Amino acid sequence: MKGNLHKKMHSLTMSFANSSIIKDHLLVDIDRLIRLKLDSWPDRVLLMEEAKKITFELTVKQLMSFDPCEWTESLRREYVLVIEGFFSVPLPILSPTYRRAIKARTKVAEALSLVVKQRRIESESGEKRKDMLGALLASDDHGGFSDEEIVDFLVALLVAGYETTSTTMTLAVKFLTETPLALAQVK
């Protein structure tokens, strides 16, 4: 994005991130999801993979108010293929990973398009939700965004924090377990 579209999206994102909506619900959602995950883990887990799942589920919750379910897990599996495509040769003929990523990006966009269409219908009938998608749809009063722009933006927001947040979570656990004094101070 560039120009006015970038300015509008940036302004909307910052106002949403600084709003009481996210402050009042984000920590509650994080706590609830982490406790749910911890209770379901076996004795041994691959922490980085679990951190990625948690990050994705929290992001989907904040963006579109979806709790973890079969639909979000299906979306996550396709999304992982999109991410793998970032680290492949961007030539569909030479790279099966890149081809899979392009197909997965299409599936993710289609799934999100259906959500946006449904939420637009709900929004027009007066039903409002306090999430990023709700904020994007409410911005229609100020010039609005097309469904395609909203879908692209949702995909971009999913990408933005996925690797960095899950890596940070994993490193925090690693360093806290290696430093008992710091862990005690955090507790």
Automatic annotation (TrEMBL):
Keyword match Transmembrane: yes
Keyword annotations from UniProtKB, A to Z: Heme, Iron, Membrane, Metal-binding, Monooxygenase, Oxidoreductase, Transmembrane, Transmembrane helix
Gene3D superfamilies named in the record: Cytochrome P450
Source organism, top-level taxon: Eukaryota
InterPro entries referenced in this protein's UniProt entry, alphabetically: Cyt_P450 (IPR001128), Cyt_P450_sf (IPR036396)
Residues forming coiled coils: none
SUPFAM superfamilies: Cytochrome P450
Cofactor requirements of the protein: heme
Membrane topology: Single-pass membrane protein
Tagged with keyword Glycosyltransferase: no
Pfam families in UniProt: p450
Subcellular location: Membrane
Family classification: Belongs to the cytochrome P450 family.
Name by which UniProt lists this protein: Cytochrome P450
Species whose genome carries this gene: Salix suchowensis
